Structure formats: C-alpha cells, structure tokens
Fold:
Amino acid sequence: MPDHAQPRRGKWRLDDEEPTFAKRGRRRRALPSLEVYDTTDGLTDGDRWSTWDQSTASERGPRPYPDWLVTDLAAADTELGILKAGKEADVFLLRRAVPGTDRSCLLAAKRYRSAEHRMFRRDVAYLEGRRVRDSRVNRAMASRTAAGREMIAVQWASAEFAALSQLYQAGVPVPYPVQVLGTEVVLEFIGEPDGTAAPRLAETRPGPAELVAIWAQLVDALVILAGLGLAHADMSAYNLLVHRGRLVLIDLPQVVDVIAHPRGAEFLDRDAANVARWFTARGLAEVTPAPDDLPALLRREARLG
Structure:
C-alpha cells in the first residue's frame, strides 16, 4: 500500500492514551495461516511487494540484519489488520513472505498520519530542539500548512527510526527498526507467531516477583537512555510491552536530548515520576533503587546534577 493511501480501519480501535484499554478485556485475534494468503499468482487488493529495496542503506536497520528478517526482493507484504490506532499514527500488522517458500516474518508498520488528518497535538514542545537547516521547512512546519504538516509527519517517522536504531545498538530493549520509508516505520513485531501482540504493561497484573523483575529491566533501560543523554519524553505503562517476561520500550518518536532541549530535564523527571508512580501503586517495595529514587538516579546518569 503506498504511503499516501488511506489505511483500512477496523471496527476496534485504540487511542494512544486511552486509559480504559485494560478494562476492555483481552480478546486477541489469532491470525490465519500463511496458506490463506495466495501471493504466488499475484498480489491481492491492499497487498504490496516488499518495500525493502525502496529504502536506502541509511533507511534500513542496523547491521547485521537479524536472521528472522526477510530481505528478499521477491517478498510480498500482506496486511493482516490494525494493532493500534492513535491520534498521530496507526500501527498495522504485516506478514512479509516469499511466495512459494516458508520464508516469512511478522512486522509492525507504524504509519504517521497524513496532512489531511488531525495529528501531532503534542509536537510543539518536542520539536523545539529539532529545527532543520532549511529555513523554509522550519517556517512551513511552524505555520502548520498542509506541506508543513506532511514534513512534520516525515520528521517524526525519521526521528523514531533514528532513535530506535541508536537505542537498539546501545542495548536498550526496543523493537528492531527494520526500515523507514516516508511516513512509515517498519518494526519488529513483538508478540507470538500467531499474531497475538504482546500486552502493554498497563494491561498486565504482575505478581510480586514479576513486578520486581520488570522494574529491574526498566531501570536498566532508563539508565542506558540517560547515559546517552536522552529521555523517552512520553514514558508510561502504556508505552511498555511485556513479552514472555521481557520488557520492551515502544513509541519513541519524541525522544529528546536532555542537555540540548530546553525542557530536557523536565521530560526526564516526568518519565521517572510516571513509571515510579505506576510501580508504587502496585505495591513495589524494598527494591534498589526505590521508585522514589529513580528521578535522582537518572539525573546523575544524564549528568544533570
């Protein structure tokens, strides 16, 4: 499906920050088998050939490419439904497979909304530290013209891909960034082989031991981020996945440099406070560092004093 095409929408949609998500139950769809999709005789409506060769080398994920990733030029992408919908981007589930073979992988395609859609209600604060060299581009984005909004969408996609690439290489638990093309970022799908997506932390009810283990993983990830001089800037239990006991950070287009950004320290403190509050409310106690100590720890790692 081309970048500019309108994505198909299912009836079940979830806003990025919808707090009632966890109350809606956990009905998760199992995907049909690969045999249901006959790509050997040509692509069906809504499908596309793999876009791998359309991204330049700098628009592809870090090398070495994972063994599970299908990079064959003969591969086709089959859209299997929507994983998450939000004000700024929708995330779709893709199966990238080579027709006539057993080579396939599941991917998440995050598509930032086009200029015709309401989007980026939070972008003013995050874009303060992201001016580009071309003054005409900066003026277009600042005035929110149609062209400017499209430029913002491309910039958000590029920013998320760059952040994911840096963090993946630094050892932060994030989805592998497969490629970026225009306003679409293709990512590793975090979930089961049948297409069942990993739950967000806000959906889970971890027991005491699991809560401690998840907290330790989160602290390690945030310490690496702070050591790189970065803050997630929108951290919450809704932007963390838990897959088979492993924590994964998601939704990173707004990552900020805590030194260069005028509100960097504020974003870092807010991230720490948000997650500390969630873990404290679920009874986390007698751990090191304690939730209340996290803001100071991250400030030291970021050399903010």
Summary: The two ends are 48 Å apart (CA to CA). The chain is about 30% helix and 15% strand.
